[in-house]
């Protein structure tokens, strides 16, 4: 009787462990694919503004939702696709950089927070700020 109870206990424990293992490969996932993750605006005079639009596509099989877009300083202002991006569709992140008070080489990081299966996506905006010609 003890042997049967032991075998039954081992079987039930093993079955519960198998049930806990879910195949996550078959679950719907959003995947953000950025076409180009860097943009060099070249040279610009201090006080000027420039903008760039980064294009992306949802290559996953679930809607992509961007929660927020973070920047490394207040001189870089993002605007992005706010509605969910369906699988196979595209969206954008537009960034406006204000060089007021800046000088020399600038590298600004823009971080996209979303339900992307591969985590946050980082974009780089860079260029050289030169003195204003008088």
Structural class: mainly beta
Strands ordered across the widest β-sheet: 1-3-6-5
Major sheet characteristics = 4 strands, antiparallel
**What is the percentage of strand-forming residues?**
over 45%
Subunit arrangement of the protein: single chain
Distance between the termini: 98 Å
Written as H for each helix and E for each strand, in order along the chain, the element string is HEEEEEEEE
Number of helices: 1
Number of strands: 8
The pLDDT mean sits at: 90
Q: Please identify the top-level CATH class.
A: Mainly Beta
Show unreliable segments.
none
Number of domains: 1
Shape: elongated
What name is given to the CATH topology? Answer: Immunoglobulin-like
Q: Give helix % range.
A: 10-25%
